[in-house]
């Protein structure tokens, strides 16, 4: 299963930069250099790509990678139709044919042969050869390749080989600064910024526990969930537990500690 | 093999809440937030979902996940029919097309690519892209996604990645409180509540052994089985052994200890 | 390969109970509770099921499970016939359609997705959904599900998950008591009971070595083999070695000890 | 790949018994009990079966088992012929239909589902159910099942489960006694018995090294090879090295020791 | 997925040799000896092959190898077309039929059966047998086989067997000397050589960390990326971080050290 | 991929024996005994077989075995042609039908079921049963089976089982003696024997390092490569490094030592 999203190019999704990522993106785009986005779950990488694509007026194709994603899922395959075999472009091939940004989310999850497909697109050849159809597609100047991954999950089996990594300009992402995050959560949840602030403070506290008691810090998405539940009438402690604690851990001890911690911060 | 159940929306299965789970469900439903149910075997998660679906008048599709369940089992596939290939929706696609609750039971058991299918349905896109048909289904406002799993089984190979977990509001489930459980067992088994009480007491004792001598505590279902056998005429010790001890362990020592324990409680 | 046996319902195979198993079976049948039979190789589980099925006048479908048995082997699949695809029921589906007992022998050997097929048949839904045909079969009141396994083989990879185990009323089986076993062996082998007795005594001694020197004790079947060879004219020591020692071990030391032991008992 | 041999029933291959194996075979045959032959490589198990089959006037089907042998290889499968699917019997099914001995050589090598096929043929049912054709073949009284394996290779992954082993009467095989082996080698190689004798003595010495320096002792076949090479004119030391030493080991030290040993014995 | 590039033979890609590699290539070509190129990521192996192919006027077929590349991907396979099966040459077969250089990049990544295909092409037979079509293609005198791999990745599972390695003349590659690298980066990035020099110095410093803090040194490609970003207006430290530090490591400590190091060198 | 070579029987490839291998081959051929060739990479096993085949006037079929080679690759399979299934002989079947030598190179690399195919061809049955076509091919008296392997690679997973090994007469191969090797290299490379001699001396020194610093010694093929490069004009040290050092090792330390060693020998 490959997931593809073609974002309509009319809307520019809101995005508030935290560093030089927009300038870097635009410079990379000027020189047609491929981009690697690194950062934790839910810190806004996908939103950033959508924002930049809209800003530059480029169509965007997003592919969420997973363990079973093969090169053929990206490039295309022959299917049987009416007793005959017909070639059907995959999302990467479509993006190369039509131009625009192709974004491979969590690329380390994909099968190893995917890297091979990306190599000729990421050096001076800028080309996608389709062995099975005999075509060699030259990427148009409007084509740009972006990949992302979460270094926090990186393990021995799932890494980008240096021969692949060294084909990308890379940007490190992190969570939004406090004020930005409060504004974003308030806007998305319709809850008062004043009521959002302690939730963001709690999230920032919980993120410090990453690698100690928690595998991963709280995403901004979960803070928005929490604020949404509160805005819809759920008591604060119940909303915090359901949206900011239970999704993080199954360990009774850790959970108890988080509940106590959240009680002290939200008091 | 995928198991799907479309519960007819006329009946509202009985369910007696033990905490704020009904309010939490309804608030999540108001904001269309996806829900994650955590809890041990046989504590009523499936019944709870059936109850809430009926109460909210929503059709319910249940998929029991297992080791071989792939994304295609959920979204659909092309099948050969009369020499031609025809697309057949999977249960998740049907639920997205027609609205209602789609409930993936024991979701950690499924193959890894399933998580990828769920991601676009669980963020602000609320969308199910079908690469193979070229469709992008927007989930109707009547669509809600619920997943469950049993943290007791959690191991290194079978966990939800944080990038998936952090897309759900989560509820922790546990067994019913004593009086509730007695009432439920009596009602389902047609055995007198007075005769059910010691069985529930025994079950509550046995649940304390979880992680010590037993892999999992006694489910309410087994207590109902036991009461049913007694109601049908089987002597109490034989019913207890057949329904509340033999299904829990194969270890002769543990079994002997459980028989002695049950004898002392049921005396 | 799936093995199915439809026992003709006219004959009632002989079976002499060793405990409350017949009453327990009948009570479970009255309440339509699914049954789990536990016990060592060759202690009569299969014969017991055949006996009870015939006694209750129920058709019996037996499926011997193995490492490669999948859910589809039980429920059915589409086969190509004359250029078209035709659905063919598996043995479980046939049993659900037509009623009667479906007995899955050594169920832990089967693939993991089999458990998922059994779940909806073993709770209050009593239903077999066939995703591929779009059918949902309600089990008729004449349907009963029985599974068996040998806890002696149980290992980390091959166990029933608690969520599956806790769906069954369970019966523990063991070998026949001495007098019963002598009668059964004499009857099946046509050898005098007086000559059978020392063979049964030897078998009972050998069973004590299980877990020490032997992986498994001698089955009643092997005692019958031994008695048959003697009845056909083979000298006792040769028959004992061929039917009760060589099938148990390949270790020269253990074999020598068993030969000596049998010599001392049969003297 | 399944290997089948239908031995023409006219010839009775020579076989000189070393113990009670012929009487035991005939007694098992009288009571239609299945037989398990255990013993090292090249000690004559296959020849013994061929001999007994011819002596009893029974057609013989031999299947050499290997890692990829499945139950379907034994029972049969549907093949596409002229656009239609046609059932083709496997060797076991043919043997059950037509009667005679079916001999599965090195049965532990086969896949696990093979055991399941054998179970109903090896208890009082004596039946081969063919799920895919819907047939249930009753084995004719002329049918007998024989399996063999080499306990020397036995490891944790490749064993017969007790539930399978305990369905067979078992015979342990070993190499021929000295005089018999000399006679057999002389007869097969056309070399003088006097010249064969030291070769057999060497073989008997080498067999004592099994488990110490050698994985397996020298088979009678290799002694015949050696004698054949000598009879054809090759010098004795060269023949011994090529047929009785190089096939046994690749270790330079062990080889040197064996050459020295053979020199001292053949001097 | 196999990636093939047929470089048009008109252009001669620029390449500045660092040793005797051009003479060695030409001598090997004169004697039609196969060539093995060893060296780190991005040191110019692929460019070297393209350069030599153009210089010798030979068509070039490049195949990037990966974990799933099989012998059939190289030689060809039968495909269904219009109901019939048609043989389609793979890239190696095409190269053998039409002559020229066939270059297998990162050959150790490919499946083991690939080596077998290469053997008859790399000894005095110079032949490609196609079992499935029954053809035996003699390589024309214009055919040359080149393979490459990166010894830095070499591990127990992924190596060339001696029986394969010993069929090639081998060349060890390393990064360009300082002045050459400055010239190449300046030319490709359009940045002043004076501004490129410190970047190359930094790269040379970072390469010394290989095996200590870094898995692999900085490729020339990344230095070109960095210079391109600077030329396009990005501040030097931001360009260095994005193109020469973030692509190398995800470790916060290592990154901080690299930033400090680059600050001290670029000051 | 299976590689087959049918050597035209007109040419007799040059081969200079190092021991009794030719006489042994001919004696084995007289008695139609199967042959096992053992020895290191590039010591001339394949050439020896080609030589003997031509000398005896026998057609030769060579199959290079690899990890994915199955029994069906050797015996044949049904292929779809024009909507019908047609049986196509594999190389072993062809050789059995038409007579001549069938040589399986590096047989331990092949899948386990290949051994089973070889068994009936290597005992007194000399027969190839084709289960799928129902044929039983008796090998003609002109048929001989030869297998080879390199004991240096032997590991726990890749060995010949004793039951297979003990079906072959075996010959151990080693490199040519000094004078022979000089003559062969001079003849194949067209370089003066005087200039070849130090290269062979170097090779003989390097072979002593096998198992210490090198996985495998230098093959005669590499010495020929080296002499060819020198004859074509490359300086001796460059040729030695490219053809006799770089193909042997990737370890910088080992390489430096080998360069020094070669310098001292070639001085």
TrEMBL record, chains A, B, C, D, E, F:
UniProt keyword annotation of Nucleotide-binding present: yes
Residues annotated as transmembrane: none
Stretches assigned to the ATPase dynein-related AAA domain: 34-168
One MF annotation (Gene Ontology) recorded for this entry: ATP hydrolysis activity
Keywords: ATP-binding, Nucleotide-binding
Chain ranges of the CbbQ/NirQ/NorQ C-terminal domain: 181-261
InterPro entries, per database record: ATPase_dyneun-rel_AAA, CbbQ/NirQ/NorQ/GpvN, CbbQ_C, P-loop_NTPase
Annotated source species: Rhodomicrobium udaipurense
Entry keyword annotation includes Nucleotide-binding: yes
Pfam families the UniProt entry points to: AAA_5 (PF07728), CbbQ_C (PF08406)
Family as reported in the entry's similarity comment: Belongs to the CbbQ/NirQ/NorQ/GpvN family.
Domain of life: Bacteria
Protein name, entry field: CbbQ/NirQ/NorQ/GpvN family protein
SUPFAM superfamilies per UniProt: P-loop containing nucleoside triphosphate hydrolases
PANTHER family documented for this protein: DENITRIFICATION REGULATORY PROTEIN NIRQ, MOXR FAMILY PROTEIN
